[in-house]
């Protein structure tokens, strides 16, 4: 196995919507990320951690952590949202490039930190998460508008900050299913942006994680891991339910306790010589955060047991 650092993300504590009144303090997230044995974490959604470089740098250094990626988790479709997306790109990239730089790994395609970019904020797709056969698709014009927004984000990140944008297909957004990923890689060249593929989102959206990773391997710069509770998944697939409401029901579970085959995923990454960062995510309702440290510690130990040191 090439050199890999396992990291985590604030969504493991239920941090997805910064307006949620139940979010934990950002310092607690850092404390528990360190306590569970992780080598770093993502910045989380825009506005969760402060934009104060000195404050965040000291907090990370005190815990021997680094920020491996910033996140844009927003409406990528609307052209009216372009100014907001560009502002986030500037502010996030300015922060993550001013923080201590994560270690470069043997086999890593591009340097961290990354800018992970996900589409979000559309009720008609949120309720259709995981249902490729019934989910509405964008019109060609609306799709091209989203591609224009992505190109603008990725170009600013790269040319002004040296940050690689990685596009993350996400359940409940307009880049989720196999046909949309295929179109995305046609429309956004490799020199503009890479992919961040998430094993759990791939499986949630009716694709095979190993096959999808292999298919798009020449575009994968960064990887997310999660696992799915099969009984809860079967239940929520029979309901009209938003993606994060499914997460609040426990559809995401500690890695190794769900339906994904992580020994097979490890074998693939070994075969393909992946080096760099892998971020664990287990989305939940922040009101159910008492078990975060236990779940993350169990996920981290399972990955050690299957060869991710």
Strand content: 5-15%
CATH level 3 topology: TIM Barrel
CATH superfamily: Divalent-metal-dependent TIM barrel enzymes
Stretches with pLDDT under 50, minimum 5 residues:
none
> What form results from the Cα inertia axes?
globular
Q: Give the CATH class.
A: Alpha Beta
CATH architecture term: Alpha-Beta Barrel
What would you call the quaternary organization? single chain
The radius of gyration computed from the alpha-carbon positions, rounded to a whole number of angstroms, is: 18 Å
Element string (H = helix, E = strand): EHEHEHEHHEHEHHEEHHEHEH
Helix share, percent = 40-55%
Tell me what you see in this structure:
- This protein is an alpha/beta fold and 309 residues long.
- It has one domain (4-305): TIM Barrel (Alpha-Beta Barrel), CATH 3.20.20.150.
- It has helices spanning 26-35, 53-63, 82-98, 123-126, 140-161, 178-187, 199-204, 209-215, 230-237, 243-248, 262-271, 292-305, and strands at 4-8, 41-42, 67-74, 114-119, 164-167, 194-198, 220-225, 227-228, 252-253, 276-280.
- The strands form 2 sheets. Strands 1-10-7-6-5-4-3-2 form an 8-stranded parallel β-sheet.
- Strand 5, helix 6 (178-187) and strand 6 (194-198) form a beta-alpha-beta unit.
- The longest helix has 22 residues, at 140-161.
- It is globular and about 50 Å long.
- The protein starts with a strand and ends with a helix.
- The model has no long low-confidence stretch (mean pLDDT 95).
